[in-house]
Amino acid sequence: MVSADFQPLDSGIVPRFAGPSTFMRLPTTTPDQVDIALVGVPFDSGTTNRPGARHGPREIRNQSSLVRRVHHVTGRSPFDLARVGDCGDVSVSPLDLNGALDTIAASFSGIRQAGARPLAIGGDHLVTLPILRGLTDRPLGLIHFDAHSDTYDAFFGNRYNHGTPFRRAVEEGLLDPKRMVQIGIRGSISSAANYDFARAAGIRLVFIEEVMERGIDSVMAEARSIVGNAATYVSFDIDVVDPSFAPGTGTPEIGGITTHQAQKMIRSLSGLDIAGADLVEVSPPLDPSGLTALTGATLLFELLCAMVGA
Predict the structure, then answer these.
(1) How many angstroms from the chain centroid is the CA of residue 252?
(2) CA nearest 310: which of 269, 273, 279, 275?
(3) CA-wise closest residue to 301 among 63, 67, 99, 42
């Protein structure tokens, strides 16, 4: 049993609308004290159209007060299996993109050196690139849920934005493209060549039509076989979920998965060697109802359970 120091606040003692706003009502801590470090990355300077994801970590913290301690399917509590805490936000400048990337990389390098695994909350999808820079010195596998491949080369002449992180990560040797799978891809594209890099590199693209035709179990079994037993990173872009369930995101695409399908997909990751994970692109200003942030918080709990095998 994990120490009581790393348990969520008891809602029977401190109501959910009271107390400090932390991820899942966990204690604030430092990476050297925990097994899994929940970390906010409030950065969206890599956004090319609709901003707002810099506000994601704060609102996901608020909505995560609705997350309870025991998973309703497995009956297990991740908080009893690992020391988990809210390690705050990376202090990033919204005015210096390259400087922010360096700051994020250094922060996650520190988390790694402290012996914790990160569960990061963005922020736009560019944040995954510096997280990987700080997290590993060898190519990782990747299971990536997204409406977009994010393997484009540049926008407006800039090679670092939320549409390019996985191309840069392959080029930098942070990811092994033969152990990468991208699930839920869909939507119109700006050029027929948009997927050329991913296909040439050997990345497995699973378009939404294939997901719906084959079913979740089949697709996720293949994803597990692609990454194998070696260290793997998991990245979940909220726009893989249909915007009827999660409208608060910068680049929505209709025809996505349901929230239930998203939960089932993440649950299937349990038992993998997950070196770290993130959930990105929640933009609270684009959804005043709070539904998208609630979806993000709930899926964050699913990711936590997968990371501890609960």
Answers:
(1) 16
(2) 269
(3) 67
Give pLDDT, residue 45: 97
Are 279 and 236 in contact by the 8 Å Cβ rule? The answer is yes
Q: Please give the full DSSP string across 234-270, using - where no structure is assigned.
A: EEEEGGGB-TTT---SSS--SS-B-HHHHHHHHHTTT
Length of the chain: 310
What's the predicted TM-score (pTM) here? 0.97
Class of domain 4-308: alpha beta
Domain residue spans of the chain: 4-308
Instruction: List, for residues 111-146, the tens digit of each pLDDT value.
Output: 999 999 999 999 999 999 999 999 999 999 999 999
d(CA 165, CA 97) in angstroms, rounded, equals 13
Distance CA 64, CA 296 (A): 9
Question: In this model, does residue 4 exceed pLDDT 90?
Answer: no
The residues, any chain, with a CB within 8 Å of residue 255's CB and separated by 6 or more, are: 186, 187, 208, 242
pLDDT (mean) for 246-256: 98
